[in-house]
Amino acid sequence: MRMRFKSVLGIIFLLIVGCSAIGIGYLFYNEVIDTSDIFVDGDITVNYLDGSEFTLDGDAILSFSVTNNSNEEKYYYIQLSDVYADDVDYVLSGDNLEITNKLKSDIITNQVAIAGNETVNYTLALNSHQNSEYSGKIQVGVRSNEENTFSDVILANNVVNETALSNIGDNAVDDEGLLSMEDDLGTSYYFRGAVTNNNVSFAGHNWKIVRINGDGSVKLVLDGIIEEIGSYYDNEFGFAQSTALEILNRFYDTELVNYGNYIASYKFCNDIILETDNTTFNAYNRTVVNKIPTLVCLSETTNQKIGLLTIDEVMLAGASTNENTSYYLYNSDIDTDYYTMSSARYTDNIYYPFMVTTDGAIDYDTSGELLRGIRPVINIIKTAHVIGDGTVENPYKILET
């Protein structure tokens, strides 16, 4: 629930000009109760005394408390999400804790211990240096003290924002972190924009995390291309019968087969639904025309250990039909356009699969018979464990068992 300071000021003004002392106490009491927000997660109760969501235009102090209702020690994290702010500082204060930083979507503290039957009180003091409105959300969640899977670690190290900072279908040039969307298997969490903590070192190669799949496996894309091919397809549309799949399988057999226990068989989307005009594919209308990418496969799937990105994943990552050299899929060392799994158009007996250009743009107007690159995608099994934090200096690495 949002803070409503303007309405409170209005109430105070009316009270000053004519309300009784009894009326003052009654109205003020109702306003405080109305903005509170109590959240229960297992044995942990969080009381956002001023509401978990806020919209402000000046300095303020927000209060919340965390209570452990069990007899055993528990763990939780504190984060800020969906923050829209310009030059605002904060100080988070609690028992033996004081953290100062700029107001932004961020995990303030990752794992805080709380003793059994204990309550910890917090204040978030906000100091605005501009006369402009800012907003955000305070979130406290339970954290297990057990060793976490790859997807758990990613979620622990990132804020999941409810909305993108840029419009989907437009370029994402800032770090927009993680966002969520449903896929065929559940809730997926995808990276968008200029993120810098989605790096993975695996099988002697550098990879980028694209998303956590709905089943908890983690999708990776190679941070480069493996080779160029002169023709994408072989008599039939789509990925399942393509020359690209032959190249990918050869790469898997030579580079990845010894790590196969960590690579999931995944149902890649063979995106080949033609529209009624028989010249454009559904993916073209879905992404280029309507700008509504989806992670749910609307076509047939092909079960593989290795594949390519869909155009929907590229758009969600931050691409548009214009140049974008800021989002994480762009790599200045990639000096040729590369294919995706998605089909764009079929015109005058020429097949046009979607591609990504060397400057990071989405391309739907290049023949699938031209020399273009292959950028492999794999999925790490959901039970995998990792070390590292995803930065270039300390990329995630799979713990071999």
Structural notes for this entry:
The chain has 401 residues and is an alpha+beta fold. The protein has 3 domains: 34 residues; 111 residues, Jelly Rolls (Sandwich), CATH 2.60.120; 224 residues, no CATH class. 16% of the residues lie in helices and 39% in strands. It is built from 6 helices and 26 strands. The strands form 6 sheets. Strands 11, 12, 13, 14, 15, 16, 24, 25 and 26 form a 9-stranded mixed β-sheet that branches. A hairpin with a 2-residue loop joins strand 6 and strand 7.
Major β-sheet annotation: 9 strands, mixed
- Rough outline: elongated
In round numbers, the mean pLDDT is: 87
**How much of the residues is beta strand, in percent?**
35-45%
Number of helices: 6
Global structural class: alpha+beta
What is the strand and helix layout of this fold?
Elements: H1 5-18, H2 21-35, E1 37-41, E2 44-48, E3 53-56, E4 60-68, E5 74-84, E6 88-94, E7 97-102, E8 106-114, E9 119-128, E10 134-142, H3 150-156, E11 160-161, E12 175-183, E13 186-193, E14 199-202, E15 205-212, E16 218-222, E17 227-229, H4 243-256, E18 266-270, H5 282-289, E19 300-304, H6 311-317, E20 338-347, E21 350-356, E22 362-363, E23 372-374, E24 377-380, E25 386-387, E26 396-398
Parallel strand pairs: 11-12, 14-26
Antiparallel strand pairs: 1-2, 2-4, 3-10, 4-9, 5-8, 5-10, 6-7, 6-9, 12-13, 13-15, 14-15, 15-16, 16-24, 17-23, 18-19, 20-21, 21-22, 25-26
